[in-house]
Amino acid sequence: MAKKAKQTKKTATAQQASTVTTSDTAAAQRPLVLSIAFWGLAALLFITPFFRGLFFAEEQYRALIFAAVLFWLVFFGRWTQRRYKAFEHPLDYLMLGLPAVYIYSAFFAVNTGLAVTEVAKNILYFLAFWVTVRLVRSDKDANQLLKVVYCAAVAVALAGLATATGIIHIKDGFLSGRFYSSFQYPNALASYLMAGFFLGIYFWNSAGRSSARLQEWLPFAKLPEWLAKTNPWPYLFALGNFIVLTVFVGAKSNGGFLVFILILPLFFIFSARTDRIPYFWHLVLTAIPSAPAAFLFIRSVEAKSPEIAWLWVLLGLLVIVGSQALTDWWNRSLGQRFKAYRKAIIASVAGACMLAAVGVGIWVASNESIKSQVLDLTNAKYRIDSITDAFEMFTARPLTGWGGGGWQEAYQAFQNYHFITRQAHGHYAQIGVETGIAGIVLFVALWGVFLWANHRLYHGAKDAGRKALVLVVTVAGAAIGVHASIDFNLSLAALALVLWVLFGITAALSLVKEPVTEAAPRKRKESSYVPLNSTALVTASVAAFIIISFGTTLATASSLAQQGYTKLRSGDINGGIVALQKACAYNPFEGSYHAALAQAYQATGSKDDLSKAVEEAKLAAQMSSYTPARYQLLANLLAAQGKTEDVAKYAEKAVGVAPLDLKQYDFLARTYFSLGYSLLNDDQKDRARVYLEKALEVPSSMEKINNRLTAEEKRLWQGEKLEPTPEMKLNLGAASYLLGKFDQAGGLLDEAVKGIGNDNSKAQAMLWLALVKEKQGKQAEANALVEEAKKLNPDFEQIYDILKGLPVIE
Fold it and tell me: Given 105, 137, 168, 344, which is the most exposed site by the fewest CB atoms within 10 A?
């Protein structure tokens, strides 16, 4: 009998030794090349926030190259395992659709350079997603990637604190009492930290179940028993959560606060019943020191007291350590003593929180400064109006879209009143503008499949850890996605990468089993041998090579263009031309390169180079057809060639694409006057009259726009109002003089003299006004004005004689 029991025990031990979890199996079977790819993806997620949130194209190109290398490594690693299937989940196909619709819309783009950049960016997103799905083979893998995102969020938050106090320098990292950190945009920072905070709460709660002990970390130290048995992980996550939440509050993002308030209840509702109280307790104990620490830190920084600012952070960290110690004490012994009073304690804490919330509300209501900020809906109005403008653009091109960057390029032509926003304050509205109905349908499908897949994972999960993981992935993704509906946060690729990785984790978890014990996989039978598929590897290698070449070409063009700009600024015109020619060769779609090259050609002063400049300027205008500066440049170059009709056409086009921009009307009035003046010099009075009269009609064009504005639109108008500037009045006054309207000319030129700050322009206005005074028989006043002009520029005496010789059109 004893012998049989012994044999049974031995058999059980052998079976236990031959069983592994899916997590262990995935880790044990992962080839080195896939391990390299996994930590490469982790590095991509951690580093990219520190490259200005990956907002700018040059950083995006380099990230694309890196992602393409990861793609090849993953495909090669899977190829060695004879796993050739590239698409296994519906999200795979939908994600591939994103770069596809951007490539399609690029054929109709109004800015080809921005469209190409958007294609590159969406290929980057797809690669990050695809790599994530293939590398995450277990819950453990998912948690490792999420921990990298969390650590990056803590590091970004610390960078915000450090740059605010001058320890490190991040351009625009702290402005106007708000944290911008490495994202250089507070709302995107808030969205990133909000997702990081949800991850932090999840990891804090999971860490409480860990068997780690502080004595294991410090084996050489003699610690008291209670300290030796302390689990250090919850303390570390609690401290990290405090840092993240403090900077989140200090970013002062109204949209971030709103989304956080909306998403947080969902997190509690769908959390396991046993997790709700710990989550709530941790949130309260973290928020209590974080909110005051954020405001007191910022106040100390603004008072030029960085040491005091860090003291507030240190005090908050001490409070967090104390609150975590209290939590541990409660969990170990105190909770058991008061178990009978559990409901009363919960009710008391909830009541205290409600009273605190009421107190904060009363404080806000009694503080006029805070109340005015809370109730100021101006920013909300701008967002609503930008989305309205985006809808108008969408309806203008529903089937083709405006191409990547279409909003940034053309939004000024669709505004009802002037405000500046290079990105639509609503990512999905911007998607509709750029890609039309195809992009909208695709994004609706993406979110639908993401939420449905997580719904199935959540309700189908038998393991509590898997259920909590699925919940935090859903909540973090929803927080980023909902916030993106009212802001352009996803234009910062570092944040978008986090969202795409969350999509990837969802797809990956749908394809792998829960972490349950399974028999260790046996070796393949000889009959199940699958030969290597060389065609698949060659195809993937070619695709990776094309993407790497694409990214490298764009990155090289950007680098060469920067070199060209630097050479031009230093006076090396020929060197600048050579660099810009190379940039245009590497990326012929970027209009700004061609525009810079046109200006460089113009600077040489050569007649042949002037023709080249015109050709480059025309290319620039074709590639960015809603940029008024392109038409201004082209008009100036054509004027130098003496092509009168084309000069007026392009000056008018500049106003047409930016009808609310005062600078374009200034340029148009100056162009009309210059053409009239030139034609009058050539004794073409009839043609000159046409342009001079057109110059005088410019203010009425502005007045028509002003008359249709509502009182609210006038209040919200940003920038210069559509009113004649002193410089415009100089051109209008000179045109009036040449048309024989001396009284009108006198009034305009008098206002120009009083309003112009530039000495040369002021002197010109004085000369024209002197001519008017002379025509009015006020010779003494005319002489005095000429003398004043000579003081500003001695050469103007000769110019006055030239102007006197001009005929006046009666």
Answer: 344
